[in-house]
Structures are given as C-alpha cells and as structure tokens.
Amino acid sequence: MNLERYIRQTSLAETGREKQIKLRQSHALLVGIGGIGGTAALYLTAGGIGKITIVDNDTVALHNLQRQILYRTSQTGQSKIDCARELLEQLNPDVEFNFINTRFTPENALSIIQGCDIIVDGSDNPALRYLLNDLSVGLDIPYVFGSIYHFYGQVSVFNSKPDSATYRCLYPQEEDALEHFKTFRPGEFGCLPGIIATLEVNETVKTLCGFGENLQNRLLTVDLLAPSFKTYSIIPSAQERCRALENYNRLKTQV
Predict the structure, then answer these.
(1) Contact 78, 59 (CB under 8 A)
(2) pLDDT tens by residue, 30-42
(3) Do residues 51 and 77 make contact, with C-beta atoms less than 8 angstroms apart?
(4) If both were cysteines, with which of 42, 167, 254, 255 could 133 make a disulfide (CB 3.0 to 4.6 Å apart)?
(5) Which residues lie across from 219 on neighbouring strands?
(6) Cα-Cα-Cα-Cα dihedral sign, residues 93, 156, 242, 209
(7) Is 96:116 a contact under the CB 8 Å cutoff?
(8) What are the structural domains of the chain?
(9) pTM for the structure as a whole
C-alpha cells in the first residue's frame, strides 16, 4: 500500500496511519452500482478499502446518466459491471475487486457475502433491503443503508452492535413496505444519489475504522427542497432482531 495516496486522510488525527491500515484490511460488499452505488464505489475505492465485492446485473441506460456519474454516454447499453471494472481498477490499484454480474438473490446471497465485513446499500427496492438486513444480523456485520425518493433521502447504520437497531426496527411491516414500493412514482433529483452515497461512505469508513459516531439507532433524513438534514432516533426491537435471525436461518436451510 502506497501511503502517499492517502496522506490527506492520514494526516488527520482521527484517521491516521493505523486507521488507514485497518481500512486496507477490510472487505466491503456493495450491492447495486446505480446512482447511489456508483458514486459510493468511487469513494470507497479512492479511500482505500482493501477489497470490494460489487454486485449488479444491469446495463447503462441514457436516462440514468443524469445521476449515475460512474458511466459515460459512449457506454450506453453496456454492462454496468464491465464499465465499473474499467474505471475503478484504474482509480486505485491498491484495491482488490470482486465484480459479480448477477442479481443479488436469496439463492446466491450467502456465497457472495462470505468474508465481507460490512454491507453497503446501493439497491433500490425494499425486498432486497430486508434480505441485506437479515444477512447482516445472521452474520453479525454492519449494514449501511441509504435510500432516495424524488428530493428526499435517508441514511442509517444497522446492526452496528449486537443490540443496535436493524432495518426491520425502522420498517417492521414488510408487506406494507413492499406494497407501498409498487406505487412509487419514478424520478430522482440528479445530485441526490451522490449526496446519499457520500454519507453512506462516511458511515462505512467510520464504522470500519472505529472513529467518530456512526448512525446506529439513528436515521438521518435529507430534504433538498427545504433544504434540511434531520436526525431521528430508531428504537431497537429484540422482536425484529429475532425475526431477522429466523429469516437468516431459514435462508441457510434453503440454499
């Protein structure tokens, strides 16, 4: 590892050489490399996380490019994974990548997530988030959550500690959340995914390295129209944690 690359970061008292080495020894799973995930991938890579597994099976589309800054117009129609590989490997040769061109599903989740230290959410649907949450609880690794809708975003860190809140504590009614998602009107303000992504990366690095305060048991909301940033408490629920663990154990028996 060439520490000169990270000198602006390691010169800070909170993020010194030891923290950079700890980051270098970490393995992050990033699910989705669209608007949020693509921006997060850039900063995770530039920041020097040792290994990043990236999962996505989508292709670049012209209507994505107003917010998905990882891609170029000339790449329209190409695999996002292939385009991401081309850019990210050039961005930081210190990082080991595992690019997986597939959907992240209950059938392949356990094999993909093996060895990961943290989950970073670049997804865009609640069904996948419940899966990521249950894997987080079952494997006892943190889950950095982010979501967007029009001009609004949310960020949190779930399962940061054995007794901290999970995604199910925030949204316990899974059926209602899935049904509500079907009625969402499409559209996101262009810079919103980038704002949420950089907040997710901030929480990821703090959680992995152990400095500052992360968003465990708290939900950070972003309103770009106001504009405003607000933080709300999330009450941990032992019942919802047990539900997540039950789903994880069920998942293991089905694979």
Answers:
(1) yes
(2) 999 999 999 999 9
(3) no
(4) 167
(5) 232
(6) positive
(7) no
(8) 3-254 (3.40.50.720)
(9) 0.95
Nearest to 145 by CA among 134, 132, 135: 132
- Beta sheet of 228-233, edge-to-edge order: 96-100, 51-55, 27-31, 118-121, 143-149, 152-158, 218-223, 228-233
Burial of 146 (0-12, 13-18, 19+ CB in 10 A): buried
Position 231 scores a pLDDT of: 97
The yes-or-no verdict on residue 131 having pLDDT over 80 is yes
Is the confidence at residue 176, as pLDDT, over 70? Answer: no
Tokens 């800070």 belong to 12
Hey, what amino acid is at 39? T
* Residue-wise DSSP of 39-59: HHHHHHHHHT-SEEEEE---B
CB atoms within 10 A of CB 202: 17
The neighbour count for residue 1, using CB atoms within 10 Å, is: 13
Residues 6+ apart with CB under 8 A from 195: 153, 222, 224
Per the structure block, which two tokens stand in for 187? 């559209």
